[in-house]
Amino acid sequence: MNKRDVLQQLVRVRLDDGSHPLADGRIQDVLIEMHGERAHVAILIDENWDGGSPPADAQERLRQAVLAMPGVASVRIVPRPRPRARGVTVPGAAPAPGGGDAPTRTLPEGLQGARFVAVASGKGGVGKSSVSVNLAVALARRGLRVAILDCDIYGFSVPALIGLERSPALDDNRKVIPGHGHGVDVMSMDFFVQNNSPVVWRGPMLGKALRQFLFDTAWHHPDVVVLDLPPGTGDMALDVQQQFPPMDVLIVTTPDPFAARVAERAGSMAVKMGHRVMGVVENMAYRECSGCGRREYLLGRGGGDAVAAALGTQVLARIPMEPPPPGLRTDGLFPPASAAGRAYEELAATVAARLGLNRQDAARPAGRSR
Ligand SMILES: Nc1ncnc2c1ncn2[C@@H]1O[C@H](COP(=O)(O)OP(=O)(O)OP(=O)(O)O)[C@@H](O)[C@H]1O
Known about the structure:
The protein has 370 residues and is of the alpha/beta class. Helices cover 28% and strands 23% of the residues.
C-alpha cells in the first residue's frame, strides 16, 4: 500500500454537496506508517477547508473510504494550515495514469492564490473558446483580476476572440508579458507563431510549452485564471489537466444529444484527474426571434440537462445563439447588453459566487493594479 493507492481511493469519493474532496487543495498529503502488514494512514487536510473548518461528515466520509481498503488498520484525519511556499505545491489530486507517484503540481509565484476555472468540451466547435473568453471578460467586468491561458496549443483562438494581436515582449526579469485586452491578461501559443502557421510539435514539446507558459510569464497575481482546455479526452487534454492543481471545470456542450454524450466523457475525465465539475454551460441553446422574441431550438433540446444529470451537477448557463453584430467583427465578444452577453454576466456572477470571490475580495492591493 502506498500514497498513490490511497489517493486513488479518495478520487472516487464524492461529498454531500457533490464536490470532490481532492478539489482546491483540501487534501494536502497522505502519510502511511506500516506495522507489518497493517497500514496506519493519516490524511492531512486543509484546516481552512472552503473558508471554514472541515465539515465533520466530509471527514468521516474520507475516513470510511480509506478504512474500507484492505490492510488499513486505522485512519486519522489531521487538519493543518495550508503551507505557504514561494511556489504553491498542491499534492497531486489524481495519480499519474500509468503509474508513478501522484504528480506534484507546482505553480509559479505570480499565480499564487489564484483560482483556476477550466473550460472543457467533448468535441471541437461547440464554443468552448467562446465561453472561456466571454466568461473571462465578464469576470473582469465584475472587478476581478482575470487571466486566461489558452491551453489549446494546436487550435489556439483566444487572442483572436478577445481581439488581440501582438508579438511577445519580455520584462526586466526576462519573463513574457501577457497580452492584455478587455481587462484580461492573455497567454497563448498564438503569440509565438508566425503567420498563423500550424503548430507541429509532438507531446513532449507541448508539455514544455505549457510549463513555459506557466513559469516564464510575468503573471500579476490574478484572482481567477480561466483555462481554455484542448477539446476532447485525448492525450493533449489529459496532459494539460495533469499540470494543474485541482480546478473547477465547466463543461461546454450544445443542446445536441451527440455533443452531450461526448461532453459527459470530458466531465468524467476531469473528475478522474481529481478536478471538480462546477457545472455545465449549454451553448447555442436557442435562438431568439428578434421580431417576436420566440425561442427557436435549432440544435434540439436537452443536451445540457443530460450532461448535468450524468455528472451530478447543474446547468449554470444557457447561452443563446447570437448573430455577429452588424459591421466588421473584430472579436468574438458578445456585448453585455445582448442576450448572450446577459447570459455571460449571470454566468460570471454564479462562477464568482461559487469561487467565493465577491468584489470586496477582489479589491486590488495597492501597487498591484495594472
Ligand atoms: N452562442 C453563440 N452564438 C453564435 N456564435 C457562436 C456562439 N458560440 C460560439 N460561436 C461561434 O462558433 C464558432 C466556434 O466557437 P469556438 O471557437 O469557441 O468553439 P470551440 O469549441 O472552442 O472549438 P475548437 O475547440 O475547435 O477551437 C466561433 O466562430 C464562435 O464565434
